[in-house]
Amino acid sequence: MVYLELAAKNNPSVQQKFAEYQAALQKVPQVGSLPDPELNVGVFLSPMELVAGKQVADIRLMQMFPWFGVLKNAKDEMSLMAKAKFESFRETKLQVFYDVQRTWNELQKVQQSILINEKNLEILHSLERLSLVKFKAGSSGGGSPSGSSGSPGNSASAQSSSGMNTMGGNSGNSAPTTSAAMPASPMAASGGSGLADIYRIQMETGELENNIALLKNQEQTIAVRFNKYLNRPSKTLVTLPGKLKADSLTYSLSAVSDSMLSQSPMLGMLDYEQQSLEARKTMVTKMGYPMVGLGMNYSLIGKDPLAMAPDMNGKDMIMPMVTVTLPIYRKKYKAMREEVELMKTANKQGYQATANALQTEYYEALQLFQDAKRRMKLYENQYDLAERSLNILQKSFAVSGTGLTDVLRIRQQALDYELKKIEAISDNNTAIAWLKRLMACSQIQ
């Protein structure tokens, strides 16, 4: 994957850990070298009178040598610490790879959610147009019965009947009035229902448009986070595939469980630290032994005309020297050994805690993986059934104009199932990346 390669090259955390590893390598020649020799030069402002001349200056050179094996153990300690730094670098790189893939899956999930919501928005617009056409058709068709009831013939007969009833003194003329008002009632009910359907669709449309706007904001935020893992400008375009596909785990779960503890960089780092502490313990023990220094003292002698020994007059003197340190203050060496033992104990506890955390992570990743696979299968079937039901209800609504509530309900279910299916695929891919990280797979194909 190109983005993983870019993260390995450009991510600041990865580069920081690699620089720390290279710096740790530079400590090996530092601790493996002898202490700097000491050179002492003394010049007499007034030459000192000797039997065989005048001493002008005194030059002393001394080289100290640690006890046998101290330098070797120091080099071993630093070499092992450098290896521990390299394992820390590997751990950081694997974590960055996982973060990149997890963010990539989130970005794909949001993008697919936007596409799904936009597709459903088009469906709502189609239902709105269809409801508007039916509403207009119902309004125009409802006017003809009203016109026929108000024809001249009918009006005349109504007036005649009304006059006859009045002349006859009959006060029960409510029946004709009720009969004349009945044709307007179905038209009002039909128009009100059609208008309410349009309002409901518009409410659903507003909610969907708000969700799309929210998802687009989320997409921008996730894209910025993704670019920062690659150490790129925030507005850099992230190229995504057109469809979110489910990844497959190329390793068996037993292989992941077996290799997790043996290949973990964190456990490898702690193991190298334990070995370095062993080398340090040996070095500290030998540091409690004497150090030996070898050197030479050179006395510069000038000639003296009055010297009592003419044969030795003006002859320089060379004196070999041996120096031995006396490590009699044993408390500091004992404290150094106790310090190493406590650090070893802490390292062992850290190793066990890290191993426990890895096993916990494995079961969490395994649960996410198995749950995602189950949800992918479930929501695939549920979405297929909801789509079939929606197609049937849409056809029924287009023909009869009834059942809008069922259409909207099934449409919402289909939308939910499709979004949940996308989320399950994203969780599946994230779980696979998590399992690969636990088994220290570089994931660069």
TrEMBL record:
What keywords were assigned to this record? Cell outer membrane, Coiled coil, Membrane, Transmembrane, Transmembrane beta strand
User: What SUPFAM superfamilies does the record point to?
Assistant: Outer membrane efflux proteins (OEP)
Q: Does the keyword Magnesium apply?
A: no
- Write out the ranges of the annotated region (Disordered): 140-187
One annotated GO molecular function is: porin activity
Major localisation: membrane
Can you name a GO cellular component term?
cell outer membrane
Q: Which Gene3D superfamilies match?
A: Outer membrane efflux proteins (OEP)
Location of this chain's protein in the cell: Cell outer membrane
What spans are recorded as compositionally biased (Low complexity)?
146-187
Please give the coiled-coil regions recorded for this protein: 369-396
What is the protein's name according to its record? Heavy metal RND efflux outer membrane protein, CzcC family
Q: Which organism is it from?
A: Aquipluma nitroreducens
